[in-house]
Q: What sequence folds into this?
């Protein structure tokens, strides 16, 4: 991400319609600025960091439309995450980014297992994850005060699937 992305980043991490379905606790202005600076200047490769966040852009357009991330969950498994600005919902970007992230993580980073946690009421993300992964568990997420479902897919399963 670049300096000009700051207003879009602020929207992605503070607008209730974007963060409530995840859910995510609201960050202070200082936390938002610190996270933007952190996510805009990575010094470590993705596998050496617990969390790497990248900006998402449409081809031919330099306006930030979303964020995707390679995260680490509470069981030290790698996790894919994403979010988009509201005008870009329902246009297939979530599916495209999830597919691309899984391909990248399995075939470039050589990760053996990928996960994704989703608030079960976030039906759009549930539909996306069910295209590529299988449900592994459901649990109450005390930090976010919601019920999450964890999805998983192994590199072997991914590379033998017909529809990616």
A:
């Amino acid at each position: 991400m670049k300096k000009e992305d700051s207003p879009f980043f602020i929207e992605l991490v503070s607008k209730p319609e974007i963060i409530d379905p995840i859910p995510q606790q609201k960050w202070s202005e200082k936390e938002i600025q610190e996270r933007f600076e952190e996510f805009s200047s990575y010094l470590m490769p993705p596998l050496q960091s617990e969390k790497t966040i990248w900006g998402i852009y449409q081809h031919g357009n330099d306006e930030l439309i979303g964020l995707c991330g390679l995260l680490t969950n509470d069981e030290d498994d790698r996790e894919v995450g994403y979010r988009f600005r509201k005008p870009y919902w329902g246009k297939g970007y979530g599916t495209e980014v999830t597919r691309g992230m899984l391909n990248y993580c399995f075939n470039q980073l050589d990760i053996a297992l990928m996960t994704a946690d989703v608030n079960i009421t976030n039906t759009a993300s549930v539909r996306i994850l069910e295209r590529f992964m299988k449900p592994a568990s459901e649990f109450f997420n005390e930090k976010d005060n919601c019920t999450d479902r964890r999805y998983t897919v192994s590199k072997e399963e991914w590379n033998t699937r017909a529809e990616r």
Q: What stands out?
A: Strands lie at 52-57, 64-72, 78-84, 113-119, 134-141, 146-154. DSSP finds six helices and six strands in the chain.
